[in-house]
Amino acid sequence: MKQCLIAKITTVLQRAQVVRSMARQKFVGQFVTALLKSRNVQFGEVAQYLNDAVKVALNETRIQDFFREADLNYLVL
Q1: Which of 47, 51, 63, 74 is the 20 to 30 Å CA partner of 38?
Q2: Domain residues of the chain, as ranges?
Q3: Is 35 helix (H, G, I), strand (E, B) or coil?
Q4: Does the pTM of the predicted model rise above 0.90?
Q5: Distances (CA, A) of 62 to 1, 2, 15, 75, 76
Q6: pLDDT 10s digits, 26-53
């Protein structure tokens, strides 16, 4: 179910063109899923639900890097 939700979010992002890169679109799908699970907006809390295969600190760094480097189309959001 998790992968299905991420795939649907990625499809919506492709149509809306919020971010250009497919890798970033997939990350946003994972991030939104983690936001819903954590019910929190703090990066440290969301990082616990992002990717179970890696350490929480790495997930938090990944989130920070995304928001620092990604060129989001806020008009579409």
Answers
A1: 74
A2: 2-69
A3: helix
A4: no
A5: 23, 19, 24, 24, 23
A6: 888 889 889 989 998 999 999 999 888 9
